[in-house]
Design goal:
6-stranded antiparallel β-sheet, 185 residues, alpha+beta
């Protein structure tokens, strides 16, 4: 089964073909923890959860008239190495239905499982991969120069009826390879 790997030189290959289906593996609290453990790494995250407005670009994706979102700010590590920054925006209606998404510890399977438990299962994920200039804060955290181009993944999770229930903006440290597969039959 496809999996993420961390090479001896520190290169992380993120294999998106099955990462979300394996998010609970071994009692993991989400895809990052499961895939990092599977590759022999030591995952950990520093998490801050706040409520507030989403930036305009994220609010447009959420498509919600609600002004408040739950914002999960994470610094994600393999051991002591910071490998990504991730801000996740969850509409208030989701947090109301699945209050655990606003907790520091979201339990086995993470927020995607908590949403599913509340009848808001993500049935479609779209991820846009772009290069974006590092902000001063991102540059300082990831050890690059401000303005350096970093890979960014904007993850959008939707329910079967098309409601957007999550937008996550992943900013990756240098040294990532992203792998995607498309079935042809």
């Amino acid at each position: 089964m496809p999996s993420n790997t961390i090479d001896a030189d520190g290169t992380i290959t993120r294999d998106a073909r099955s990462r979300y289906r394996q998010r609970s593996e071994g009692g993991a609290h989400g895809a990052f923890e499961a895939e990092t453990k599977r590759s022999g790494g030591s995952p950990r995250a520093e998490i801050n959860v706040v409520r507030g407005p989403a930036p305009a670009e994220i609010a447009a994706i959420l498509g919600s008239a609600e002004s408040e979102a739950v914002i999960r700010q994470r610094r994600m590590f393999d051991g002591d190495r910071l490998v990504q920054l991730c801000d996740t925006y969850i509409p208030a209606f989701v947090a109301q239905a699945a209050p655990a998404v606003a907790e520091l510890d979201t339990g086995v399977g993470g927020i995607i499982n908590r949403m599913s438990d509340a009848g808001l299962a993500q049935t479609e994920v779209v991820e846009d991969v772009t290069q974006e200039p590092a902000t001063a804060d991102q540059a300082s955290a990831l050890g690059v120069e401000p303005g350096a181009l970093l890979l960014t993944i904007t993850h959008v999770g939707r329910t079967e009826d098309g409601r957007t229930v999550e937008v996550s903006k992943h900013t990756l440290s240098p040294g990532w390879t992203l792998r995607y597969g498309v079935p042809l039959s």
